[in-house]
Amino acid sequence: MTLKKDTIKYLPLTAKYFSQVITLANSVHGDGYLDDEKIVEWTNKGIVNNINCSFVALLDDQVIGFRSTYSANQWQIDQWCSPDLWQVDSQHCCYFKCNTVDEKYRGLGIGKQLLQLAIKAAQHQGAQAGISHLWKQSPNNSAVSYFSKCGGKLIKSHPDKWNEESKQGYNCILCGHDCHCEAAEMIIHF
């Protein structure tokens, strides 16, 4: 598909787009991945000093992609994180929660542009790096490949990262309600 770059608009993620983002997220990642409560929580974690780190990509007012990012100090470091390997103080790391592009529009640089916007916003908030857990079972491992091309470095692999969420209602598109997909913990230094 050929689209002119100026055809796609990129805007901060706001409540106006929540419904479309939830629909896109659940169609790509599996039912139960995102809901009304989670989208509000995710978006609020990305706003500091009126700077929003989460964005949508729009084509004719239709959401065709989104990036959810948590601001530094707005997310919990858990057992799936390896801050001793990050080479930057965890207080200065944002968290790239989710990047999703509609299948029909992949390969057009939308994910990269959403990430660049999130990085710029996070930098304005004071972040020096961003952590993410990328889905290694994505088609052709495209999630890890895209993040690596954008400067991401592998920190550690985490089997069964989403298993607990799958037992609480998330229906993985590959594993169902007993997800054993592996996450690649990766970092981008700004």
From TrEMBL:
CDD domains in the cross-refs: NAT_SF
InterPro entries per the UniProt record, alphabetical: Acyl_CoA_acyltransferase (IPR016181), GNAT_dom (IPR000182)
Pfam families (UniProt xref): Acetyltransf_1
Key words, A-Z: Transferase
UniProt cross-references to SUPFAM superfamilies, sorted A to Z: Acyl-CoA N-acyltransferases (Nat)
Superkingdom classification of source: Bacteria
Record GO terms (molecular function): acyltransferase activity, transferring groups other than amino-acyl groups
Domain (N-acetyltransferase): residue spans on this chain: 8-170
Keyword Flavoprotein in record: no
Official protein name in the record: Acetyltransferase, GNAT family
Organism in which the protein naturally occurs: Colwellia psychrerythraea (strain 34H / ATCC BAA-681)
